[in-house]
Amino acid sequence: MDNTKLIDRLIIELNNVKYGDEAKLNCLIEKSEMIVKKIFGESSDYISSLKNVNFYPLVYPVDEYYYYISWNNGIKRLMNLFLTMKEEHQIFFKEIENKEIENKNTIILNKKRMTAFSEKKETNKKLQVFISSTYSDLIEERQSAVEAILKSGNIPAGMELFKSGNVTQLKTIKDWIDESDIYLLILGGRYGSIEAKSRLSYTHLEYNYAVKKKKPYFSVVITEDALNKKVKEFGTNIIELENRDKYNRFRKQVLKNISSFYNDKKDIQIAILDTLRDFDKKYEFAGWVPGEFLQEYNRLKKENEDLKKQIIY
Question: Taking every annotated instance into account, which residue ranges of this chain make up the domain DUF4062 (predicted)?
């Protein structure tokens, strides 16, 4: 039962106490003490106030007139005490109610701000794109890819930091692929260094790893004309001679999936810019978010959680 209704019941019962009905009055006072302890606590001043209400005359000799006056004065004091209790409880309850309304409004406002931060985060979000390729034959192509990714407002990873062909580097690169949002393969004319256990190139292993991890990926593959042109300019060291069959199988595998051809560095940049735009619409990327956005978002989230704990009604 609502605490206010409990006090109202006491007021009704007090109005029904007849003059001289000490048994009913004493029962009501005992009941009042229990209700006071429930509403205001064991150490409430109302408990001592209840005990100090006097219903009997303090003058002697006692006659019916003084007894009647003392009884009625006691009833009035008890009634005033009940009314004061009710008023205090209503004020206290109103304060709680107002506080909860304020908390609920703050939660709603914070949710709106969190939504706004999420939308702002999307516009400020930067995707990490891992660039995979053989190294020495594709230095310029990799640099073009880096420039395109930076131009799109995103973050390139891999780059010249790693050269496929080292086991410990491969483990590190796999970690980088895991942490990246998108995997990009640039496939030129070389197959790359072979990993002893799998007998596949490290570049091939990186590609398979990205596909296995269901990482959003795409490839740019050199055309035959562009490759022939590079051979004339740089010699046969930029094409695969030793593992030609493996290169052809890898190239065929890549072309079955999302890929584009390139004749020059400009084609690489166009393919990257177009694909990143498409991927941004297609996938929900975590991306890199400025620290201040994340801190404020987490602060609002925690504030809402704390406010919800304070809401009891």
Answer: 128-210
Q: Residue written as tokens 């003490």?
A: 33
DSSP state at residue 136: G
CA atoms within 13 A on the CB side of 189: 20
Contact between 222 and 259 under an 8 Å Cβ cutoff? The reply is no
* In the chain, domain spans: 3-96, 126-288
DSSP assignments along 204-250, one per residue? HHHHHHHHHTT--EEEEEE-HHHHHHHHHHH-GGGS--TTHHHHHHH
- The answer to whether residue 271 scores a pLDDT higher than 80 is yes
CA distances from 260 to 109, 127, 128, 243, 279 (A): 47, 20, 20, 23, 15
Task: Determine the CATH number of domain 126-288.
Answer: 3.40.50.10140
pLDDT (tens digit per residue) in 95-125: 666 666 676 667 677 676 666 655 555 555 7
SS3 3: helix
3-state secondary structure of 194: strand
The DSSP output letter for 133 is: -
Please tell me the distance from the alpha carbon of residue 211 to that of residue 124, in angstroms, as a whole number.
27
Q: Do residues 53 and 36 make contact, with C-beta atoms less than 8 angstroms apart?
A: no
DSSP state of 270: H
Question: pLDDT at position 6, please?
Answer: 86
Model pTM score: 0.57
Q: Which phi and psi (to 5°) does residue 163 adopt?
A: -120, 125
Structure tokens at 56: 């009997």
Mean pLDDT of the chain: 82
| Neighbouring C-beta atoms of residue 111, cutoff 10 Å | 13
User: Each residue of 246-262: b (16+ CB within 10 Å) or e?
Assistant: bbeebbeebeeeebbeb
